[in-house]
Design brief:
- This protein is globular.
- The longest helix has 24 residues, at about 85-105.
- It has helices at about 1-25, 55-75, 75-80, 85-105, 125-145, and strands at about 30-35, 40-45, 110-115, 120.
- Helix content is about 55%, strand content about 15%.
- The chain has a four-stranded antiparallel β-sheet.
- It has one domain.
- The protein is α+β, with helices and mostly antiparallel strands.
């Protein structure tokens, strides 16, 4: 039950922020929030991270479903041994589901968080992407770090 609530919360936050962008911004509209550093910029991404595999919607949907099925089916084995792993699971699953909803419903993923500095520019992303990246980071910390984050748990992710 707790896992479902955490996954649902991640999906809800992702979908609400995307809905807000779609309602308040025209496609490709940009709002400078912090000059020279951060914009809100409504982008439609038909690919995966950094626009890779653009236009391969069916492949991305199938891959997302496969990864979601894998991490949920093997959650105790993959995530249950560490507190970081147990924190990572709802972020990964919620992020995958959030972007999957966009791909199925819209045919693209809504991105809007746009960071840059000078000539450096990071591709726009969203809350689901952030959840996935944080989830991966927590999972890796749990696998490699010794200490409180890697403490043995009850295995009940």
């Amino acid at each position: 039950m707790r896992l479902a609530l955490l996954i649902g919360g991640t999906v809800l936050l992702d979908q609400l922020t995307k809905l807000w962008i779609q309602m308040c911004f025209l496609y490709s509209e940009k709002l400078v929030v912090v000059p020279g550093l951060f914009n809100l910029h409504y982008i439609r991404n038909t690919g995966a991270a950094w626009g890779l595999l653009a236009g391969w919607r069916l492949l991305l949907v199938l891959f997302s479903l496969a990864m979601l099925g894998l991490i949920l089916h093997r959650r105790r084995e993959l995530f249950g041994a560490t507190s970081c792993g147990r924190a990572a699971l709802p972020l990964l699953a919620g992020g995958i589901i959030g972007n999957l909803i966009d791909r199925v419903r819209l045919g693209y993923v809504v991105d809007f968080l746009d960071f840059h500095h000078g000539a450096w520019h990071f591709p726009a992303f969203n809350v689901a992407d952030s959840a996935i990246c944080i989830g991966i980071g927590l999972y890796l910390i749990g696998q490699f770090r010794q200490g409180p984050c890697a403490g043995r748990g009850d295995g009940g992710a």
